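Mods, move this if it's the wrong board.
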Amino acid sequence: MKKFRKAYHSKNRNYRCLVPYKTIEAAVYGDEEAIREIVKHYGSYILRLAGKEHYTSDGKIFYIVDKTKADIMQISLMESIPKFNSVH
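Not the wrong board. Structure tokens:
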């Protein structure tokens, strides 16, 4: 279940990895390992969305992750997986 397929997007001509259908199907039916794989797959994206840009007094930029916001997004993802209805 750990192999991710690359999909080609002609619109912006880049590649991105997709979660395999079997992993999504298993997660919908409650497989905890599959749910963990999906959460791990989107983990860096969640952290990027939960990040805040800050500046030091000398103008350097650094990022701080709002852990509460990241946790909320992760929980929302986990709660939405069983509701995915295209798996029959």
